[in-house]
Amino acid sequence: MMMPRPRTLLLLLLLVGVFTASSSASETTVGDGDGDGGQVYIVYLGHLASPDLSESEDGVSAVEFAHHDLLNQVLDDSSSASDMILRSYKRSFNGFAARLTEQEAHELSSMDGVVSVFPSRTHEPLTTRSWDFLSFPQTPTEELPLEGEIIVGMLDTGIWPDSPSFSDAGFGPPPSRWKGACQNFTCNKYEHDFSSMSQKNRSVCNTNHSPLKNVVAYSKIIGARAYRGGSSDGLSPLDDEGHGSHTASTVAGRSVGNVSFGGLAAGVARGAVPGARLAVYKVCWNGGGCGEADILAAFDDAVADGVDVISFSIGGPMPWQYFESAQAIGSFHAMRRGVVTSTAAGNSGLTGGRVCNVAPWMLSVAASSIDRRFVDRIVLGNGETIVGASINTFPTLTNATLAFPANGEKLLRSYLTGLAFASCSWLVVPLTVGPVIRTTWLVLCPPPAKIGHPNDGSGPLAAGAAGVVIVTRAPDVAFVLPLPGLTVTQDEFDRIMAYVNSTSNPVATIDRTETTGNPQAPAAASFSSPGPNLITPAILKPDLSAPGIDIIAAWSMLSSPTGNPNDNRKVQYNIISGTSMVCPHASGAAAYVKSFHRDWSPAMIMSALITTATPMNTPGNSGWTALKYGAGQLSPAKARDPGLVYDASEGDYVAMLCAQGYNTTQLALVTGSNATACAAGSAAGSAGDLNYPTMAARVEPGRNFTVRFPRTATNVGAAGAAYDVKVLLSIEAAKDVDVDVSPSRLEFSAQRQKVSFTVTVSGAAPAEGQVHSAAVVWYNDEHEVRSPVAVYAA
């Protein structure tokens, strides 16, 4: 697991986020300062009539000229639009990023032709076993050509192309529709063709008189771009963190045998679609996060380049309104071009946050466990054994002295006269008594005294400690630490402290990590951001769950496994956790389904994944509902043949946005059609009328309610299929709720035929904060098409 870097903003699980008592993920804006300091804003103008590739003599295209003209209308005479605009979006949608004062942004937002103006925030960039756990077999050889037509766009920290997971062996030319580029990065390589040469002639292949001709060796990675601060000039897409390589190999890594992390998680590492191509868009930077201006630029390019799926393991602690969110805007225009966007739900489950990527045209994926855990043990000097978690491949640390660096604690004071520390985050001076470094100390780390202070073992490592024990609020996760150690719960930590206070010579031994089973899997991850959807309460988010705990995948040799500058280890494969890891599982599954159904819309692919998910209302998830784990655990093999799907077009999403309160003027700009209009009054319907594969409703606590969900099923199975319905109710919901489905049987006579039905849910609302759970299941001998229903009180 990647160690916390205080400024790393990916949706992998950061230790600082789970070890602090009340920390929450932060979200900043680019160029923060006073109101007139020139912060970066995104000016979204909606639909782009056609891609603008032309340039005038001074290098400015027609769209860019229009952007300059618009901005100049609000700038004073001392400023120029050409100096303020950082990037124009002109390939897939229309808009630009610019440095503006608050007043200039306000004036722009009220001008004709402008959909929205919002600050460019900096977001969080939130295996050998996970695909097996999902019962998803390795790709048969005969299916590899199908996958070769699929292109997955990775918006992340870049890629380490020399990993065996990204081997180029056996690839032919990229799909003919591909329009992407490799910037400061080598994609297609050139090799010598020996096939028609004698052994004698082969010996002269490196001379100036070689009879050989170079031939193209096509690559798995067919596109690579990088963006920072609105620019791409001179930037490398190489991954210097590891996160982007990890997610890319989870989606589309080749099968690589004998992979492990120091002997842990040994086996074959593979992605969902090893034959698929990768296009890399580096938008996240070590120490700089992932700027929305860059995210939007990457969406603009990826859609125009010709990707089929976009994988987006990035987010924040809370959602934003759709047209004030770079990923919601980018994925909307991706949907219009038939591109599926898969996103992470977020890592704020421990700190009161909510699912962050909630637009109904994007897939939002929560984290769950697999049937494997990594545990470690600390054996105290009195013989007591305490079990924790870690990815600890260091040699056993034997009989180390336990030290507790907290204000007023007698043990540390006796060693460091006059020095006391608020927490391990400030333990950065050498642990010395005179000239001797205490390299036999095992430091006990309570939660940091202040939010944001790292508690990841970096302080004890820098101070020369031998090992560390850290308090965690996510006991279901094992972290890679930069020195021997483990994480324990507060109760377990208190047991250790009771022993420390009972003796004048407290010592302990830490073993190497062991692998155990996890029979309760799949269980919802403690850190995974839950619903409800704060933007559109009638749309259930997250959509489904996928493996996100202790996932092994490719890593960058430019980074240590922890990201700590004092950690000198290098690994080809690393074990990390977070909703960053679940997103590529769903992206890979979407690419897999797309490889068999090239003409399916993004909504159809999302529906196939959601309605075939394995239910998670199991004892291991007691206390959780669909608001935490969505429709259940991803099941890629079933999604290939779902039987029925719930399709939705751009017009359906526009109708939902009308019901949400967006107006005709805004939406006409977004769609580029003057025919776009919002119905008035009751004819506008509700957001819950969207033909979505799940159903949700927010009701007043303790009041009687009735909600209706009109739905239309499209037959993608046998032409003469028929389905009956069954309704499943939780024990609690069955006491207070009735669910009626009309009609109760769907009959089809052709593929792609559509049949409509209505689900009516009525009864007494649950208490505030509680959920009534149900499921509507259409079934026959071949298929079960399951739609969760969640009625919650707030």
Automatic annotation (TrEMBL):
Signal peptide range: 1-25
GO biological process entries: proteolysis
Keyword Zinc: no
Residue numbers annotated as active site: 156, 243, 580
UniProt-listed Gene3D superfamilies: 2.60.40.2310, 3.50.30.30, Peptidase S8 propeptide/proteinase inhibitor I9, Peptidase S8/S53 domain
Domain Subtilisin-like protease fibronectin type-III, first and last residues per copy: 689-791
All copies of domain Inhibitor I9, residue ranges: 40-122
Superkingdom in the source lineage: Eukaryota
UniProt entry tagged with the keyword Signal: yes
GO molecular function, one term: serine-type endopeptidase activity
Pfam families in alphabetical order: fn3_6, Inhibitor_I9, Peptidase_S8
UniProt keyword annotations, A-Z: Hydrolase, Protease, Serine protease, Signal
Peptidase S8/S53 domain sequence ranges: 149-618
Family: Belongs to the peptidase S8 family.
Alphabetical list of PANTHER family matching this protein: PROPROTEIN CONVERTASE SUBTILISIN/KEXIN
Protein name, UniProt field: Cucumisin-like
